[in-house]
Amino acid sequence: MKSVLTFLSVCLLLVTGVFAGDVSEVENITVGVSSGDPVEIFTINGSITVEEWDSDQVEVIYTITCSSEEEMNFVTVECNTSSGIICEVDYDNDWNRSHSGGVDFEVKIPSGIDLTIDLASVNGHVSINGGKGEALLEVVNGNIDAENFSGELVVNAVNGNINISESPGLRVVELVNGNIECVINALEDDLELEAVSGNITLDLGFNAEVSIETISGEITIADIFNAFITKNIVGCSSEFGDGEFSIDICTVSGDISIID
Q1: What is the pLDDT of residues 189-232, one digit of tens each?
Q2: How does pLDDT run across 120-130, given as a tens digit for each residue?
Q3: Stretch 106-115: mean pLDDT, rounded?
Q4: Where are the domains of the chain?
Q5: Above 80 in pLDDT, residue 99?
Q6: Potential cystine with 175: which of 88, 129, 189, 195 (Cβ 3.0-4.6 Å)?
């Protein structure tokens, strides 16, 4: 799987922001998949939306939007369907910062097949509702939403907000600037929530071994957890719970709230 930093280093000189232009082109690809097959989507300017459907196939619909037919010629979407589906947006060497354009993806995945999912956007939102297997979600500028994913889930963002709910396989959430909100009623393994500059809110519905630390921020914990907060010159911290799995939460600059 590509890391978001590698993706950013390749694309940074091309990024100008998503453009709502008046020329568009829509393509549709449908491919059969088996357990473990990859579903990988990489876009530069554009959103990625993934939902379940009752089928053993993956459907990818992508829309290229540009300000003119000429600029449309600079944008290519390359999709490999030899095993699963891997789609990546490519820009011609003649593309420059004066041009604008984007590619949005709408993806439908089988509800009952484990897949290896990798979704990344430089400028745009990424969302997934449902799905099974393993998933890596990454953005540079944009929000990430994940709900009802069954399996190991890792989420990384540079600038944006992250919202996760009802995904017990969540393992890692990392954010530089923005806010993290998680609703967790069960876990299948340990979890790490980290933000550099931003707030973290965890709606916790079960017993876990929770460790919290912030350097420049405040900690608030619902009374039901009977937690004690320690404050010192380098920040504040807290520990509570004795569940099977651990949840480590930390921020450099931002508040941490645990609610029920």
Answers
A1: 999 999 999 999 999 999 999 999 999 999 999 999 999 999 98
A2: 999 999 999 99
A3: 96
A4: 1-12+26-136
A5: no
A6: 195
Q: Can you tell me which residue has the tokens 């745009």?
A: 124
Residue bearing the bigger pLDDT, 20 or 145:
145
Single-letter amino acid, residue 164: I
